[in-house]
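Appendix B. One record, verbatim.
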Amino acid sequence: MSMISYIISQTQLSDVSVKNTVELLNEACTVPFISRYRKERTGNLDEVQIGDIVKYKEQFETLEKRKASVLKALEEQEVLTDDLKIKIETTQDLTTLEDLYLPFKKSRKTKAETARKNGLEPLAKIIMSQNASDLESIAYKYVKGEIASVEDALEGARHIISEWVNERTDVRNNIRKQLERFAMISSKVVKSKKETEDAQKFRDYFEWEESLNRIPSHRLLAILRAEKEGFIKVKIEIDQEKALTKIEDRIIRSNNACSKQIEIAIQDAYKRLLFPSLSNEALQNAKEKADASAINVFAKNLKQLLLGSPLGEKRVLAIDPGFRTGCKIVCLDAQGNLKHNETIYPHPPKSDSLGAMKKISSLSEAYQIEAIAIGNGTASRETEALIRKIHFKNDIQVFVVSEAGASIYSASKIARDEFPNYDVTVRGAVSIGRRLQDPLAELVKIEAKSIGVGQYQHDVDQTKLKSELDTVVVSCVNAVGVNINTASTSLMSYVSGIGPKLAENIFNYRTENGVFKSRNAIKKVPRLGEKAFEQGAAFLRIKEAKNPLDDSAVHPESYVIVEKMAKDLDKPISELIGNSTLLQKLDLKKYCTDSVGLPTLQDIIKELEKPGLDIREQAKVFTFNQNIKSITDLKEGQLLPGIVNNVTNFGAFVDIGIKESGLIHISNLADRFVSDVNEHISLHQQVIVKVLEVDVARKRIQLKLHK
């Protein structure tokens, strides 16, 4: 099967779409570029569909690479028959490939290998023929050397038969099907760890049993984490008697001494070889599904977080609150540059609230502050209450901003490079302020999994997690676009076709030569060639450029089309921008060519109508209930404002302004059955919740979505 056929079989996409997309990928085109600027070639595929093609292309390449490796190994062993070669070349999955290779794998010394060295393979073949009349007499002929008795000879032969049974693809697939349909996963507490404090968070699984194919991803990952940490023992089980009967029915076709030996060999094969291997495989498959589900949740959350509402280019005073160490204050200009920093001590033990209020008031006036960002960590509520007591001369909006990952950024190399002369507290406060101005631009500086918007992110496959999260970051950055004259190297490195090295070159060129005046000027950056320019130029924006198209998502290769449109309308390009009435007069079919069709032309018109439109919503001011300071202030039935700070498969966690987040279980998201949490709630959504239950001892809060 060819790569194209394989991808089509997995995606059900058209032959032309898959073929052309694979060609573009092989030409080093990126997913954002292909989905946005090569719609005619792909048949208007979106990023998700192109992402699927990338995934199955990689799967096919991995399979082909493994096939080549297996064929080479079999040729070297001189065991590759024409029939086996055809089977290997036509297989479409790794599991079948590994089953075909299993009998020829050079493994460690096995019981069967020892029996073969003792000359017992002919006896095993006689037993498998199932027609020997006097098996003991036949077996006696093999009593020599290390084989001291007839029973030794029969046992050695059984070891060889066990291996043959284990290597049978039909037997393995039959047990796989039983595991897939009927396997139960159970867990039991390790008694010596039962009373430890760390074990208590897993107490639900001290005595647990559930169908392996129905267990929710979060529960499986929790059970496997508890096992890894040594608090429980996990077991996979199916009906052993039924499994053995199915194997016997396939192999045993007589009722004599031979069949008795085969029956014992089958039991040995099942207990020692088949079940341990295939139950591990089943658990691993379940873990992979759970990983995929958890990674998918994390990816959705990350996308919502990165596309969170920006305040925009406003002057911000940011506060990283604290008690004993004080509150670190920074003043940022509209571009996020640090203008001032100092520390105030409004809370105990110093309690200089009056001095702190005066300082914030005077700084707000001096730096013409338009908004205040307060980190949501320790002393956040107290600091917010203090700010709201200040009578500012101008209207200043107050926002509470998530600190998740800020400490990681403040200690990172990126932060040290940005602020070499300031300590981590200043860097942390700057990050809080910049997150309010533009969450995407700031959050890309932090490793995505450190932001803390997933479930069990440390338990899933880290390579797959990183790959998926990087894809999300790339998608978000390119969907929004980047101001090349203000963007950090971190942000530019995610732009289509750019990457870390070119981002650094752009930054250095900008530092040495001043801002870019046009997109064409980008070509002057060292090592930024035609391919990188083609892939990235349309995602890099130039504010107040001479050519207004340089601050739009119109690709430079399409400028000539827009110029023709302007000429036909007898207007300069600047008059087309934002003029829907004028643009609607155009007959787009007139501008179609072999390479440019209606999808691209419609995109151009949409972009001209609202050039550089930010797809994100504007930031909204939000206030927690000022009477709720700790979990002990909560009462059942209370209605409280909150912000969703994490979404999982089993529900959503909501920040209600205290240390502990409350959980809206999936069953409490609506008054009807809910299958997908994301259909009802999203990260950073402002909600009203009803308190259902408060467990102060376990610090657990159960909530219901009110509106």
